[in-house]
């Protein structure tokens, strides 16, 4: 049975970033991957998806973008190729097609069981991400059998969908992108809107991600916010990686013909029930967006950039009809498909270490799990606001690998 210092589980960008940092610190390790490198990118994304971050922002330890389109947004094949090249460039010790079936604590570390053999190690890094299992509301169980349902993990293109109306549930980045694509396929789309964060793709002539990076917004640390639990639940910005760098928000969707409705709250007698808080949710989203833009404006002034960039501006308020509908009849043929763009949760069903809270989340302090020698990578706001991005994995991996050096030495 092989014995090694560290086992990294997951060969996506987060696991590979950790692998590079462990190699730099002379910590012997393996990276175990259930599929191929970048498996989730290969198998669980829709065909037209592009990264929401510009190419220049794909910065991993010892590696970055070297093409001629730094302000573009990678397609999925380009993203997979980028991560593949990174794995090769850093000579990551990846074992592909290796499914981890259990991780257990031992007196000296951990015992990792896989379908290709077992490993003994002193430390383990959980880098399987947090988008493993779609979150589908319980109300789905009461849907009429005539309604087809799907999650973004299963969706590839509109041809998979039934003809007729589509209800998209969820209005963060995924929901608005799929709503646009499905609407453009000729299917009527209704978008159920809950909590969301509006943002312009380009602000004052520069990508919003450039501003958040330069102004330090993305580098805000987990121990600097008032409520980190709440911060880790914040939805993704309403952004799309379009070739035209367009802003895709609720106003843009409404102008196309997409219908807005409030949060999906229940089903009774074959009718969907929806919250009446749509206007309030949109007002709150506009306030959050303008607060972010105000922070950017202050930073630009403090750093004497006002003369180099466009003048400050604000998008018009989100338009909501005076009396949005509070119900939809699922029995009259108007809606034939529901797409649940309602988020994901991680799958740690194989983790047999008592490190979970009452909601099944791994208890950790900035990625340092309460079980000594166990670490977490690749989740929302792990150590910084940018943690879940490709660009955020490197800083987190450097911090956690430094901690691991101390742990192993102690």
Describe the structure.
The longest helix is centred in the last third of the chain and has 25 residues, at 278-302. The two termini are 25 Å apart. The chain has helices at 13-24, 39-43, 76-89, 173-184, 208-214, 228-231, 250-256, 278-302, 390-409, and strands spanning 3-9, 29-32, 94-95, 100-105, 110-114, 117-126, 133-134, 148-150, 165-169, 189-192, 197-198, 202-203, 206-207, 237-238, 259-261, 264-268, 271-274, 327-329, 335-340, 344-345, 364-365, 368-369, 374-376. It has 410 residues and is of the alpha/beta class. The mean pLDDT is 96. The protein folds into 2 domains: 3-132 and 346-409, FAD/NAD(P)-binding domain; 138-340, FAD/NAD(P)-binding domain (3-Layer(bba) Sandwich), CATH 3.50.50.60. Strands 1, 2, 3, 4, 5, 6 and 23 form a 7-stranded mixed sheet that branches. Strands 8-19-9-10-15 form a 5-stranded parallel sheet, with helices on one face.
In short:
Helix content is 26%, strand content 21%.
Comma- or semicolon-separated keywords:
single chain, 410 residues, alpha/beta, FAD/NAD(P)-binding domain, 2 domains, seven-stranded mixed sheet, five-stranded parallel sheet, 23 strands, 26% helix, globular
């Amino acid at each position: 049975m092989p014995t090694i210092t560290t086992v990294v589980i997951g060969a996506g960008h987060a696991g590979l970033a950790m692998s590079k940092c462990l190699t730099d610190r002379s910590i012997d390790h393996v990276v175990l991957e259930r599929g191929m490198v970048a498996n989730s990118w290969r198998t669980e994304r829709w065909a037209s998806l592009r990264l929401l971050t510009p190419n220049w922002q794909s910065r991993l330890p010892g590696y970055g973008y070297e093409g001629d389109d730094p302000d573009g947004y990678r397609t999925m094949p380009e993203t997979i190729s980028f991560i593949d090249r990174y794995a090769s460039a850093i000579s990551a010790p990846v074992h592909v097609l290796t499914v981890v079936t259990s991780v257990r604590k031992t007196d000296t570390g951990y015992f990792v069981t896989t379908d290709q053999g077992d490993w003994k190690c002193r430390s383990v890094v959980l880098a399987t991400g947090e988008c493993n299992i779609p979150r589908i509301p319980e109300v789905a169980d009461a849907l009429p059998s005539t309604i087809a349902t799907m999650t973004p993990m299963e969706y590839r293109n509109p041809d998979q969908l039934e003809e007729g109306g589509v209800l998209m549930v969820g209005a963060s980045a995924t929901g608005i992108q799929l709503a646009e694509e499905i609407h453009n396929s000729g299917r009527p789309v209704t978008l159920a809107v809950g909590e969301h964060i509006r943002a312009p793709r380009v602000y004052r002539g520069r990508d919003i991600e450039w501003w958040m990076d330069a102004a330090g917004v993305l580098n805000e640390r987990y121990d600097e916010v008032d409520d980190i639990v709440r911060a880790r639940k914040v939805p993704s910005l309403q952004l799309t990686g379009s070739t035209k760098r367009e802003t895709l928000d609720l106003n843009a969707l409404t102008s196309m013909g997409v219908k807005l409705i409030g949060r999906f709250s229940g089903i009774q007698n074959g009718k969907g029930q929806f919250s009446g808080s749509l206007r309030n949710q949109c007002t709150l989203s506009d306030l959050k967006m303008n607060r972010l833009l105000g922070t950017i404006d202050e930073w630009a002034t403090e750093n004497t950039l006002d003369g180099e960039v466009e003048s400050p501006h604000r998008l018009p308020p989100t338009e909501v009809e005076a009396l949005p509908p509070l119900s939809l009849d699922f029995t009259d043929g108007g809606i034939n498909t529901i797409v649940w763009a309602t988020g994901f949760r991680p799958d740690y069903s194989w983790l047999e270490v008592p490190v979970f809270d009452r909601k099944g989340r791994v208890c950790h302090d900035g990625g340092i799990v309460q079980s000594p020698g166990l670490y977490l990578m690749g989740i929302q706001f792990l150590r910084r606001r940018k943690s879940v991005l490709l660009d955020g994995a490197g800083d987190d991996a450097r911090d956690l690998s430094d901690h691991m050096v101390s742990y192993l030495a102690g």
